[in-house]
Amino acid sequence: MKITLNQVLLGIIGILILILVSGTTAGLVNRRNQKPEVLIAQGKAVNLAAPVDSEVSTYYDLGTIRVVTMGTGINTSGGNAVQPSQSDQLDSSTGSPMVITPWIAYPEGDTVFFEELSRKTGIIKGVFSQFFTSHTQKEILSFGEEKIKRYLLEQINEMLSLGQVTDLYFTDFLFL
Length: 176
What we know:
Helix content: 40-55%
Order of helices and strands: HHEEEHHHHE
Number of helices: 6
Radius of gyration: 24 Å
């Protein structure tokens, strides 16, 4: 039996398709396993602020938000205020980089509200960005977590029409 060039090429194409399908499947499974709720269920992460009410669902799709807080406007390093030097980049006058990973709780089983949250993810992220970029690090620390949560919940709920977010949690709330 003689193997033709077409048969060899078809075999190679078949192997490539098999590799692509198995790689895609493995990637999707691995991605699903990296979500906070899966990591918490596997015991690889600890949820320090889990809702006690089992009749709520959690929305994790906001992801990690990186912002720079408002600067104080006071240049303490003696650099040129118009043309900052490299040493001024870490100056308090430029603000503090911040990383937050919020997630929100909403009534369980409300699929219509979940769809609204999904559609408005960008707007909700904007609420977080707007708040943290309009306050200095010192102000944010002085507000306290509960006051920040109440304000952000109020702002988010004003933008939603099909339901209300019941609570807000932070997995990360870090100044860099």
